Each structure stands twice: as structure tokens, then as C-alpha cells.
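new request in #modeling-help
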Amino acid sequence: MTRASFTGEQIYRGDASICRGCWDQMHVPIPIRGALALPFRAFGITRSKMNPNICTICERSFRYVKKQRQVTVNATILFADIRGFTALSEQIEPVRLTEIVGLFQDHCAQAIWAHDGIVNKQMGDGLMAIFNFPIVRKDHASAAVTAAMEIQRHCAAALKSLNVDRALGVGIGIHSGEVEIGEFSSFRSDFTAIGGAVNLAARLESKADAGEIVMSGQTAAQASHLTSQAKTRALSLKGIEIPVLARVLSKT
Amino acid sequence: MTRASFTGEQIYRGDASICRGCWDQMHVPIPIRGALALPFRAFGITRSKMNPNICTICERSFRYVKKQRQVTVNATILFADIRGFTALSEQIEPVRLTEIVGLFQDHCAQAIWAHDGIVNKQMGDGLMAIFNFPIVRKDHASAAVTAAMEIQRHCAAALKSLNVDRALGVGIGIHSGEVEIGEFSSFRSDFTAIGGAVNLAARLESKADAGEIVMSGQTAAQASHLTSQAKTRALSLKGIEIPVLARVLSKT
């Protein structure tokens, strides 16, 4: 499969020589690039699929890294998906559908990794990213908003280049707050985030039209230098009693 | 963490001695239990987290197994999540939240594995399962509906035992149809399913109240011996123009 819009452009592969997650969480240097990484690779310790600047110890050994089953972390959660995908999927051939999903996932990952986030979950035409764990970023809200703006810019160009008949676009929801991070089932070993803040980010995303970034007031306030142009929108969200005053960035 | 409701009950661990996915897809016997499995384990080939009766070759080497990037498969897709979780997550302590998610995920996996499905994606308080790939089951619709009924029965008992203040329950959506299965991003190696049929299953799930199994007409027709008691409900679903006549099984 060729991915036309990646011509001359490489997926962000990162450049850290030690795992930034293990360093930030434990102050332990785990080599992930160069000759020093070779013996680790022999023991199955490689770069994580969640972010190429962290290693599979962070990814799969949460309990070893944090010495507990779960931790409460102040983080920013980003959800993104392709708007119009359900309708589109009835109309175009499967190979094209795959191409669109591939482009979307790759462009999103590139933007998220460039700002120290991790792609924690991929779900078909959607994904969930976490900022501030395991790579610590004090400005995690700004990092997420910047990544979202890059996702919108790059995906708009890529989707346009595909010449799909209908208006496709990406919807993004972002919220910053306390989440629970840990391993939450007895048969999976990769960590994830749960809690009200995660669900709020997902609900905000469900309200984002193509091209829009819908964020909570908390995220907008922490990334105020990026969100001064954002419009305010009152949203009533499933499972949340009081309407939420969201801030929305859209294509100019 | 103790999980009270699992007392005297073990998570389904499967019992196949060779990988049922590799056998069904390639007719190649890959030992996953017993002494013959040991040399494979040394090469990192172990049982998959998606289903303990398949191996990590099926899970991570889709292109090797299928000799192509994607395949169209007639399958049944099941989505499940905890209803009322967003509201609940604002009210109870994080440790309890984790306990509920853990119980849910474990009970779901047990029921899905017992009927040859795989837990393809876990997303916090939700999951997506696939029936008929890589383990082939001609009666995949019936297998999914039976698994859904077991999920409802076991989760209802488990959630009740937790003595949570509010009425919690599980919502399930099921649809059977052609899906695209393959690896859809250049940086992840586990396969997933995409396409209109996947999105329809997700939309059906979003309409399921606590305790309900909402399935498409296609699934109900293929599992007619299980669904004669199901009520018909017209649903207008996001991204789908014509109202869908769904069939609903609920607690008696």
C-alpha cells in the first residue's frame, strides 16, 4: 500500500537515547538506541509502540515501575476520530477505507509523539492519547492542544490529497484533570487511564465536528496562550448533569 | 486488591494445546501448552492476551499469517461498556472505580473466550470483541449472543456484590457482517477490525441501557434460537441515514 501524503516525510521516530518514561518515573536510565540498547533488546526490552521515546518496561510493567497497582496523575487526555467515517464506510471500497485509517493513525501519532504524549489506545478510526505520563511534561495541556492543532493541519492536507468524494475531517476532544493510571484487568499488561476526566474528554470529542478541537475550560485555561481565539460553547453531555462550557478551536 | 466475586471461580484460561488461530488460518500446529510449547516460548511466542487459546503469532504477525495486508471476513462484532460509569466516576473513590473496571473486564473476557471470541480492544470501562477470527466459528453470531447473555448474568451478580450506591449495569451492542481485518497503522503490530459493520455494532451499543443486549437484525436472524424473545426497537443512529430495526434482549 502506498501512502501518497507521506512522500518526503517520515513518521516521527523520536531520538532519545534512554527511555524518557523510565527516567521520569524512576530515574533509571534504560538505553533504547545505540549499542548500549542491544543487550536490553536481547531481553525483549525495546521501544514502545505507544511512543518511540519510551520502552516496553514502562509500557508493560506498570506495577514494577510505580510499585503500586494504580496512581492518580494530573494529565491531559486527548481523543480523536474521523468524522463521517461510518457513512463513508458504507460507500467506498475496503482498501480505500484502510488507507484513510492508516493515514489518520500515522499523522496523529507523529503529532502526539512530537509533544511527548503517548498513543495509549487505537480503536479503528479513533485513538486516545495521554500527556504527562509516563513522560512528565508540566505544560501537558499546551502540549496536547499543540498536538491537536498539528493533527488537524496534517490530516486536512492528507485527506484532501486522497480525493474522497465527501467532506471527511477529524474531531478532537481534550480535557485535563486527575486520572487513574494502572493495569485494570488481570489478563492485560499494558497500562491505561480511567476515571471521570477520561470520560469527559471522550464526551467532548463526540461533540466535535470535522476540523474542530473541543476542549474543557480546564485545558483551555492551562493553555491560554493557544486558546485565546477559541469560542465558548455550552454542551450537554451524556452522563454529566450540568451543561459543560467547552472551548472550541476550528479551522479558520 | 481482592476481587470478592471471583471467589471459587477462575478466569477462563482455555485448554487448547495448539494455537487455534494458527490452525484455523494456516493449518499450522503451534504448541501453546505443555512441553512442546517451551522452545516456542524461548522465541517469544506465547499465548495471546486477546484469547489464551491463540498465540502471539496470530496476534502480532497478521501479514505473515494471511499473506496480505488485510482480509474481508464475515464476523460478529460485540461492544460492551459499563452504563452509568461517567456519573459514577465523579462520585466514588478511585480504588473502587478500578475494582469495578477490573471485574467488568475479567467477566467479559471469560464469557468471550468461552465462546471462541477474542478481546480485541479494551478501552477503560469498555471493550470490543471479534467472533470468527482468528478462531473460525460458523455460528459466530450465536457465539456472540451467548457470550453477551453470560456477560450480563455474571456482571449483574458481580456489580450487585460490590454494593455500589447506584444502579450500575452493562450495555452490549452486537452486529454481524463483513469487516476488514488487518494492521491499520504503520507503528502497531496487532490486528483489528474496521468498517461499517464495526461502527454499527458500536452505535448499537451506545443505545443499550443497563442490562440490555441490542443487536442488529442480521445477528438476531443468525442466532434465531436465542433471540425469539427479543423485542424490536427502531433506532436512529449517528452516521446512518435510515432508522435501524434493532432487536433487544433485556433482563427478565
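bot summary: The beta strands of chain B are 70-83, 118-123, 126-131, 169-182, 192-194, 213-215, 231-235, 244-249.
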